[in-house]
Write a structure and sequence with these properties.
Organism: Basidiobolus ranarum
Pfam families: Prefoldin_2
Protein name: Prefoldin subunit 1
Largest sheet: 2 strands, antiparallel
Number of helices: 2
Shape: rod-shaped
Order of helices and strands: HEEH
Keywords: Chaperone
Helix content: over 70%
Family: Belongs to the prefoldin subunit beta family.
Strand content: 5-15%
Structural class: mainly alpha
Distance between the termini: 16 Å
Length: 116
Amino acid sequence: MEENLKQMLMSMQNKMIEDSRQLSTVKAQIQVKEREKRLSELTYKEVSQLGDNIHTYKSVGKMFLQADRSVLEKEISDRINVSNESIKALEKKATYLERNINDINGNLKDIFNRRG
């Protein structure tokens, strides 16, 4: 019985450590996506304020190609939408991992309260 309890505690501890690592990674990914989104929003704002007679360019690798302003705005808007979707998915994953960590903590407390 004591050996089973020890194995179960070790398993729960390892799961909690792994979930904590994943949560840290997910939170970092959320920050990166939010930064990308802010940059895209600022770029969109600046491009949309340009006049019709202004030439716009987009970067392609190390070069710049002239692009129609409406096409450029569409690409930036698409990037913003993709960032929003990624952020939502990552936030769901973070919520799931936080719930798992809290459940494991609760289970560990229950085990130690019963033992003590």
